[in-house]
Amino acid sequence: MMLPAAMMILIVLGAIAVDGAVAFLGHRHLADAAAAAANDAAAQAMDEPLYRATGRFTLDPAKALQVVRASLIAQGDPVAAGAVPNLGAGDVLITPGPDPLHPVTVIVTLRSQVGFVFSKAVPGAPRVALVTARASATVVLSPGH
Q1: At residue 10, does pLDDT exceed 70?
Q2: Which of 64, 29, 83 minimizes the C-alpha distance to 136?
Q3: Crossing angle of helices 61-74 and 2-44, rounded to 10°
Q4: Among candidates 53, 50, 30, 32, which has minimal Cα distance to 104?
Q5: Sign of the C-alpha dihedral computed for residues 9, 25, 119 and 121 taken in this order
C-alpha cells in the first residue's frame, strides 16, 4: 500500500523538477538572447548623421530597438522570438558612459513565456512560466576616435 503512494510522490516530484528545469533553461536562453541583442545594438545602432556632423558618438534609440528586434528574430530561438511582441521602447535603454572612451551603454530587457511540460496535467496549475532577462553592452572606442 505504501509503494503506490511512494511511486506517486516520486512521479510528482520528478514532474516538478522537469518543469523547473524547463523554466530555468528558458531563462538562460532569454538571457543569452538579451546579451546577443545588446551587443548587436551597440555595434549597429550608431547615429551616423550626428557623428558626421559633430564628431560625437551616440546611439539612435529607434535604430537600436529595430536592431534588437531583428536580432531576436534571427536567433531562431522560440523563447527569444516570444519576447519580440512584448518589446517596447522602454526595454532598450541607451545611457551615457562614464568617460569619453566608453560613451554609451545599451541595456536590453526581455520578457517571454516558457511552456511547462507536466503542469498542464494538473487542474489549476500554471501552464507557462514568465521569464525576464536583462543584459547590457558598452561601446568602447579606441583612442583618437
Answers
A1: yes
A2: 64
A3: 140
A4: 50
A5: negative
